[in-house]
Design goal:
Helix content: 25-40%
Structural class: alpha+beta
Shape: globular
Radius of gyration: 20 Å
Distance between the termini: 50 Å
Largest sheet: 6 strands, antiparallel
CATH class of the largest domain: Mainly Beta
Number of domains: 2
Length: 299
């Protein structure tokens, strides 16, 4: 079953050191090496500055939108932190939902209340915020073909929360989980351990756990990385982030990105939100002006 791994340590490492240590684990994809990997992942999670420093650098290095989307390590929900032979590190964003139940786009994007498996073994650790709750199940892949509507013997294991510093191990194509929206914005860091070619050729599935069937195969969705970058900055930014967001809002060539930067500024710097929206209302593009006028009218 999905394991909670005791990786209790107060040691702190930065991202390059974590990648170096993980690269030194021989046979990292073997499950018996997960304790070593979990300890390094927990040590990285103790570093509460490395991620926002990465966000600040990415905003400072902002390029025209098309070029940025081709080169960026950011997607709508995920930050690719790099990796080494047989592994990748990612940071995942988990926003809270304002309503009692997430909207369809939130459910689809963040997989809230959508039971699914994964096509690679991975470790995950709570990094920021209270963490999401998750219901965990298991099934037997050896007895599963993988077609839509197939009856699958699904067994409930537990409900747990990925709290700050908690490390969990998920088995590929065996553990099923469904995330519930966290009480507040949260981030997890994932370590995926698998042969990239094997991952590309292995399917993962959505499940209907009440009916005990496969609903469909999981398909990748393509979302703007810059939208995610600005939203992440608004949640975990610092004083330096305000400066780089202001430069982005004033200087980026794409109106949509300028609007996202102004929105992030108003969230990160609420004491000056009125000034930020007034600046946005003077933007040369009608789209940014409309966003700003709507925000100003709601003040």
């Amino acid at each position: 079953m999905t394991l909670t791994i005791d990786a209790n340590t107060n040691d702190v490492i930065d991202l390059p050191e974590c990648v170096r240590l993980l690269s030194g684990i021989k046979g990292i994809s073997r499950r018996e090496r997960m304790d070593d990997a979990a300890r390094y992942l927990r040590m990285l999670s103790n570093n509460k500055s490395f991620l926002i420093e990465l966000v600040n650098r990415q905003i400072c290095e902002a390029q025209p939108l098309d070029a940025y989307q081709q080169s960026s390590n950011f997607s709508q929900q995920i930050v690719d932190l790099g990796g080494g032979p047989g592994f990748r590190l990612r940071a995942n964003m988990w926003p809270r939902c304002v309503a009692d139940a997430p909207a369809d786009w939130e459910r689809s994007l963040f997989a809230y209340q959508m039971p699914h498996d994964h096509n690679a073994d991975f470790l995950t650790v709570g990094y920021w915020g209270p963490g999401y709750e998750t219901d965990i199940y298991e099934y037997d892949p050896e007895r599963t073909v993988g077609f839509e509507g197939e009856q699958v013997d699904i067994r409930f294991l537990e409900r747990t929360r990925l709290t700050n510093g908690k490390v969990m191990f998920y088995r590929a194509n065996r553990d099923i989980h469904t995330q519930l929206p966290p009480d507040d914005f949260s981030i997890s860091i994932n370590l995926l351990v698998a042969d990239p070619e094997a991952v590309q050729s292995t399917k993962q599935y959505w499940f209907d756990v009440e009916r005990g069937v496969i609903s469909s195969s999981v398909e990748r969705l393509d979302y703007s990385p810059f939208v995610f970058l600005c939203r992440l900055a608004s949640m975990v930014g610092d004083g330096a982030t305000i400066n780089v967001l202001e430069k982005l809002a004033q200087g980026h060539s794409d109106a949509r990105i300028r609007a996202e930067a102004f929105t992030a500024l108003a969230t990160l710097d609420p004491g000056s939100s009125l000034r930020h929206w007034r600046d946005a209302s003077e933007d040369v593009d009608p789209y940014v002006q409309r966003v700003a006028r709507a925000k100003l009218s709601a003040e």
